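Bit of a strange request maybe. I'm writing a small parser for structure token strings and I need a real example to test against, not something I typed by hand. Could someone generate the tokens for this chain?
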Amino acid sequence: MLKNELRNILAEHQAIAGETSWLDSLTLRQEENTLRVVFPHMYFAAWFSRHKRAAFEEALNHHFEELSASPAPQIVYERAAPLAQHVEAPMPVNADCGSDSPDGEAAREDPFAGFIFNNKNTFPLATAREIAVNTDSTAYNPFLVCGRSGTGKSHLLQAISAMLARTTDAARMVCANAARFCSEDTVWAKRPELFWQRYDVLILDDIQDMSGQSGWQGNLVACMDACPGRQENVVSLGRQQGSAFVCDTQARKEGKGRAAPRMIFACSGHPQTLKTLDERLRSRLESGLVVELMEPDLDVRLRYLQLICRERRLPLTREQLLFLAQRCSQFRLLQGLMLKVGAYCAVKGHSLTQTDLENIVRTGVAEKMPGCREILADVAKSLSLKTEDVLGGKRRPDLVLARQIAMYVCRKKLGLSYPELGRAFGGRDHSTVIHAIKKINKLLVSDKRVSALVTELELKTP
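Reply from user aminoacidic:
Good idea to test on real output. This should exercise your parser:
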């Protein structure tokens, strides 16, 4: 059989076991001098074209060379015809979602390993990993990731889809933009139960784009209600689908190559953004698990820039990276800055000076982030003091406290070293800065007023 021959050839050239499982999703038909390769749907076709076509065609050439076939058959790629129930395949996968190879080089490692985060985003990432790894569980269904633009929602969906594709047939996964998916006039919109007979995983990005489109939202509501993984719908679905539903459910329980149905969505904005959606859709989304990705703070942004420098071998110092990290709150803006830095280094052929960096930042890609002066002014205003008095040398208790609070917040939010903080606060010795930060750390536990003020200042500074 041709598939088995191709599997053996691919196995000889690829050391990773199981890398040929994607062949099972292809239908191969040889007709005289033509080999027809049929994809189950356009999502699989797009993934195959990006990640497997070259290896597939190389294996075919090797196979026909061994057979001394002359000439080799012409390869024709095509989509499968609609199901007998006339269920149309969903639209092509969105390029921003699910683009990772299910079993390519990136997936040989942990798809989640590339995320740079700290305690602020531990829960969302840990939950996403659990959902991706535990394919038999229907908990957290649906799973919704919220967060401002640039926080990594689409990348998180990519990691989930890449991990799921290791244990779930890629032909049974759909990853798409929500508005495009729900606006398609397909038969499944009228009979959504047919969608879940063909697919096990639905991943939709940019749910907020459906705001004001009641028809599209209604299509998604119907699809969610038909999902066998939603326990509250088992009885009603069973009545609608009769024995077909019972048999399908039994097959899932027996583990016949099918993952538990699951729905994974992303929404740009805070969870409050869901209020712009119709009540029916909002209630169903909120019935699952809703998590929020927080914007990267200075620590994460600095680590991200350090990673880019290592990968691209850019000769930037820690102080220069800190300068850039303080001026951007989003990963996309940092990517743009580093692209410019790389291009500048390539053209000039030498390391960047501080003046060079300032010129790059001035071009409009970066946003001005609060610095020591801004934080100092906020502290002075909160305590009804003058900025110049706080920065001065007076030893009045209220001025000393304000100065120490400002040093603490600058150290934590701006990542400045003790000598840098000393210079920023009027040329003070670094030992004075260390004492100030230790003092505030104690007051955070014992003084509620100081604790509240510091918390408020930290929230103001990204």
